[in-house]
Design brief:
Radius of gyration: 26 Å
Largest sheet: 6 strands, mixed
Distance between the termini: 31 Å
Number of helices: 4
Number of domains: 2
Shape: globular
Strand order of the largest sheet: 6-5-16-15-11-12
């Protein structure tokens, strides 16, 4: 669902509850308030169950208790919505609560310092059976819950807000956080840093909304705290085995821009037939592709594939993100040439209501049979180069074709941004070898990140002299895609190579203090 994020209007979703006498709020069998007579608080802390059990795992010499208290933040009769943005990388991040009642309300200083959520949102106090406090710590909060649910029958049927608070890309520009009216977002239970350990036994856990948020959101005291009885027990053999397997899988995952494969997202389908003629709307909706500075830059020493020993070669790895800040999604359909591993690509244009208003030929798509790819790539999306200090090209990345997917929420505050994009992984958009057609999409507000750490894609710098270089990320390099502007297609990120042939060094200066 596409939202107009530039204004303050949320009338569509508020209309679902306006004029309806809300029923009593029930979560996990607990009646929270009789909202027919008592209006619910703007937000409330609610425990889904009176008691929970947590297992204590032992990692080496240290114990770890993984809490799932089931404590939620529940929005009242109106959504909780916060917009977080920065004008540029030189400007501070600012956040405001957006309502249907006028200008946004700036959040108190210190409550938002990045795009991961609200800082120091709750305090968790854990007391043992004797009433003594054994642990007390603060937790942050992301309102964009993956498992958000509605808590009363009159609440709106859907939520427009994103899933998750996206803080993996250091060059994010804007975010939207929200809880739909009558819906939930679970609080964070474990400390932000370090692990939680408790002896086996029984405890009372209290989760309290910190005073700065109680005051800002005008939450009454009786809605600002929840208590849960906790029992810490030994893990079952099966739970211990599963946790070990999860740890191994996490350790095997590496690299920026890695794609999460999921099976529940809907398939994007290409148009039934290719357009009859070119039609690019004059002054109409178009994407606007913009390149972020390269990030996650690292130096890697090459190794012999058989022995694993250094082979004398050096490589610069990096993440590259191109995002869409335009008024139309970038949508490219591929139509297969009969008996060929090539598709003819066409770009389509859509207005704010989702109506298709034009199309044009946009190059080709090709089947990439290399291991680790094995899907269809659009051949004219981006290009990566390493430039000398005088901006002359010295190395070009072997990555020259792409499968488009919405991997990064770069700025969901731009008008028309799609807060819940569908094609967030390669499975939804890249197609199988037998496909007759493919649709690839980069929605408004989202970016597509590629981690350049594979052989042939990263920059080999073995023979380059020490000195200053620039990683160039260039969108739409040959101009086959129609955009609102091409002036912002290219970004440069400075790096400095040093050291010796046997031990090279890499320095990556920050961009306006951003070290990513």
């Amino acid at each position: 669902m596409t939202q107009t994020a530039g204004g303050r209007r949320r009338r569509y979703f508020l209309a679902a509850v306006a004029g309806v006498a809300p029923a009593a709020l029930v979560l996990g069998g607990i009646q929270v308030a009789d909202a027919a007579t008592t209006p619910p608080a703007p937000i409330s802390i609610v425990a889904a169950a009176k008691s929970v059990t947590a297992q204590r795992f032992v990692d080496g010499k240290h114990g770890v208790v993984e809490l799932n208290l089931g404590v939620n933040i529940v929005a009242g009769n109106s959504p909780l919505e916060i917009h977080t943005t920065r004008k540029s990388y030189a400007d501070p991040i600012v956040a405001e609560q957006v309502t249907n009642e006028g200008p946004g309300r700036p959040l108190p200083a210190g409550t938002v310092t990045d795009f991961s959520g609200l800082k120091r949102f709750t305090t968790i106090t854990i007391k043992n059976a004797k009433g003594a406090t054994v642990k007390k710590y603060e937790t942050d909060f992301c309102a964009n819950a993956w498992n958000s649910i509605r808590t009363r029958p009159d609440a709106p049927a859907q939520t427009p807000y994103p899933r998750g608070c996206f803080d993996g890309n250091p060059f994010t520009l804007g975010a939207v956080w929200g809880i739909q009216a009558g819906w939930t977002a679970q609080t964070t239970d474990s400390p932000a840093r370090g692990n939680l350990d408790l002896p086996l036994g029984k405890y009372t856990v209290t989760v309290t909304l910190n005073p700065v948020y109680q005051k800002f959101f005008q939450v009454p005291a009786n809605a600002a705290t929840a208590t849960v009885q906790l029992t810490v027990v030994k893990p079952t053999v099966e739970a211990d085995r599963v946790r070990s397997a999860q740890a191994r899988a996490h350790a095997a995952h590496h690299g920026h821009g890695a794609r999460q494969i999921s099976s529940y997202l809907p398939q994007y389908r290409p148009a039934a037939k290719r357009p009859a003629a070119k039609h690019v709307p004059d002054g109409g909706p178009r994407p606007d592709l913009r390149s972020l500075p390269a990030w996650g830059i690292s130096l890697e020493q090459g190794r012999n594939a058989k022995t694993g020993k250094p082979n004398g070669k050096w490589y610069v790895n990096f993440g590259a993100t191109v995002w869409n800040a335009g008024s139309s999604p970038l949508l490219v359909d591929g139509f297969r040439r009969s008996g060929s591993d090539v598709m003819d690509a066409y770009q389509y244009f859509f207005d704010a209501k989702g109506n298709q208003v034009g199309s044009q030929a946009a190059g080709t798509m090709a089947w990439d049979a290399r291991k680790g790819h094995e899907h269809w790539h659009f051949t004219d999306f981006a290009q990566y180069n390493l430039l000398r200090a005088d901006l002359k090209q010295v190395v070009r990345s072997g990555k020259e074709s792409f499968c488009l997917a919405n991997t990064d929420a770069v700025d969901f505050t731009v008008p028309g941004a799609k807060w819940r994009p569908d094609n967030t992984d390669l499975e939804t958009s890249c197609g199988e070898k037998t496909a007759m057609g493919v649709r690839e999409v980069l929605d408004i507000g989202s970016g597509d990140t590629y981690g350049q750490d594979r052989p042939g894609q990263n920059f080999e710098v073995t023979g380059l002299p020490n000195g200053t270089y620039y990683v160039q990320v260039k969108a739409n390099p040959v101009g086959k895609l129609a955009e609102t502007s091409t002036a912002n297609n290219t970004s440069l990120r400075k790096i400095v190579l040093g050291g010796t042939a046997k031990k090279r060094t890499l320095t990556v200066p920050p961009v306006n203090g951003i070290k990513g």
